[in-house]
Structure formats: C-alpha cells, structure tokens
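Thread: sanity check for a docking pose with pyridoxal-5'-phosphate

Original post by kr_44:
Hi all, I'm comparing my docking run against an independent structure prediction. Below are the sequence and the ligand SMILES. Could someone generate the full complex and paste the structure tokens? I mainly care about where the ligand ends up relative to the chain.
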Amino acid sequence: MTDTPRPAAHPAEPWSYETTAVQSSIPRGLGQTIGLPIHAAAAFQFDTLEEAQSEFQYNTGLSYARLQNPTVRALEERLTTLEGGAATVAVASGQAATLTAILSVCRAGDHVVSASSLFGGTTGMLGNILPLMGITATLVENTPDAVRAAMRENTRLVWAEMISNPAGDIADIRAFADIAHASGALVAIDNTCGGAGFLARPLAHGADIVSQSLTKWAGGHGSVLGGAVTVGTGHDLTRNPIYTDGGAQSVLSVRGDAALAWRQRWFGAHQLGMTLAPHSAFLIAQGLETLALRLQRESETALALAQWLEAHPRVGKVSYPGLSSHPHHHLAQTYLRGGQGAVLTFEVPDPSAFLSRVRVLRIAPNLGDVRTLVVHPWTTTHARVPEAARHAAGVTPLTIRMSVGVEALADLKADIEQAL
Ligand SMILES: Cc1ncc(COP(=O)(O)O)c(C=O)c1O
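Reply from moderator J.T.:
Ran it for you. Here is the predicted complex with pyridoxal-5'-phosphate included:
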C-alpha cells in the first residue's frame, strides 16, 4: 500500500476524499438527519401556475421525479465533488450511464473510437445497440497510437476504461485527450474500477466525461444497481454539430458551459427515463461513505494475492496492474493513487473444478462487493462477445476473474490453495 496522501476531493475543497465522502451533502442544523433522507416521491408541489410553468421551462428545481429528486441530487452532488467534476446525472445502472454518455455527444452518422479492453456489456452496446441508431464504433488496442490511427472526421468520442474489466489495462488519458481534442472529439472514461474517484480521477487528467457503474464499489455490498455520468469543465463542443446546429438557438448558445451536463440529464433521465430510484441513491450514497476504507484494504489484499498467485506453480498468467509484469504497470503509477484496484485475473488448469471447490470465494458476476467474488468470464460476462474481442479484453477459456473483498488475506489464500 502506498503512503501517498490522498489529494483533496475537489480543487476548491480542502477536505480529503474520505472526509468529503461522509460529510458532503449532509446539511447541518437542529433536527437534521445525520444521514441522507430518502424522498419517496414521484412528484413535487407548486403553489401557483406560474411556478409550475417556470419549472417546466427551465428545469432547475423539482417537478417530477423522473427528472430530479432530492435524494438523487444529494448523491449527484457528492459524486461531482469526489470525481472533481462540474455536474453529475445519476441513472439506473452503469449500462444506462454508458448509453447516456455516448448519446450526449453522438448521433446518427457519428463514430466512436474505443479501447478494446472492455466490459462485455460495453462491447455489446458499441457493436449491437448503437449501430441501430446509426452510430458506429471502432475497437482498437488500448494505446495512443492505435487510437490516433482509428480517428475519423466524424469521430465524436474516444472511450476507454480507467482500469479495464477484467484485464486491468490502464487508459493513458492524457494522451487520449490530446488526440481526441485535436480533432474536436471528447474523451469519456469508464471509471467503474477507479472507485468513484478514489483510485483515479480521470477529469483531472484531461478526460471530459466520466461514466461509471455505481453497482460496484460505490454501492459496495451487492445490494443495489446504479450508474452516473459526471462532466468536467473546459470541454470544447464547438466542433460538434449536435451542439452548434441552430445558430443562436443551438444547445451551446442556449445552455453555455452547462450544455453537456444538460444534454445528459435530458437524455438519461428526462427523455429515456433511466432514472435512479431514491432508495437506490440512498444505498449508494451510504456505500460511498466507506468506499475509501474498503477499496484501500481490498487493493492491499489484491496486490498480495496477485504476487502470491504469480509465483504459484498451478497458476498460469496473472493480470493485475499492481504487478511489474503487467504491461500497463507504469501507467498505473501515473494515474492511480491509494492502491491499484481490487480486480485481478488468473488462469487455472480447470476453471470448472476450481470454482466447484471454493468455499470462501463466491461465484457471482459482480465487482466491488465486500465479499470476494469470482467468475469465469469466458462463459458468463464475456460469453456474448466475439472470441477475438474476448482475447482483446484479456479473457481466455482458463481465466478466472476475482473481485477481492474485505475478508482476511489468510482465509482467501487458504481457500484458493485448497481449490487449486
Ligand atoms: C466497467 C464496467 N462498466 C459498466 C458496467 C455496467 O454496470 P451495471 O451492471 O451497473 O449496468 C460494468 C458492469 O460490470 C462494468 O464492469
């Protein structure tokens, strides 16, 4: 575990990540709840016709909970601070966040360049769903040269995972941003495995959009689904016709600096209705309060297990960005703080036999749970991904993916040893 002090959660915010996670969005005062209240409401009241009219015109307050809810808003504010961004829209799942982020800058005829080391659901969305809307994607090796070579005139977005699921590739965000921005495109980073800004804050390195599944470390207990899209500041939308069409009435002219965030809320929540439920927002906001403790501990355990497995005679290739053998180890040192994540993969001679013997490890297709979860990606999370793309994502028929929980290292080692 590194001793590097955590940076402040927001440039203007003197608090560390840990303090922000438990203090932000909780009002002080007599009788205030010490945790986040759940606003179980589908709609909010107005006193007058004029108030209602104004809210429907400007959408700045509360009207209908598909658009905004105070509990969801408190979570969004907390995430904005933790990611060092300008605004966040929380949605119903990580998959909904991916769709929201892409549709915020792409329309029919547009193109996405994505690193191919990806979560299977994202590969599926890029390959199967977006083409239905006329948006195409090119998946390339996770390197600046490959991204540069794939850029086209109509490329609006470069996409990569901060720490890829499951191979642990690290996005070279600074380089991707330079390439994308030179041609008027934006960079969106899936920061799911970066733990809601704890391990990595892509916006600070030049990314324009952070998309993430909150189902993982943010929720932290395998009890809730959620996702979020956070935007930074200073992104250039002047070369994207979605924002400039219409002249004085264009989205950019009307919304100014808030244009990107506005379009994300408009699409993700308002129009597509992929709204996060207030009960889910509460669970996720509560999960964020202990994320730093969990992910720090899980990263320590993951590194110890990766080193041990790499030396184990019955284990094949081990992939973890904290290992010096990982091709992106140097990028992990540039972009990650406070640990190198809780996910590792390793090859075993017989995955079926291995999984049938585990007693502490649980077989489940999730990440970021307090319990250590294992899965065979080839037959589950990546089963629908074409074989070549599976290999590109670091998945072989022998690969086991492990999301390390908070259990004692000795118990995890003993369980893996007997299962091997
Ligand atoms: C990197 C990454 N992005 C997005 C998702 C989708 O998240 P959700 O399952 O919350 O829709 C996942 C799910 O595993 C993921 O690992």
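The longest helix spans residues 278-310. Hope that helps with the comparison, let us know if your pose agrees.
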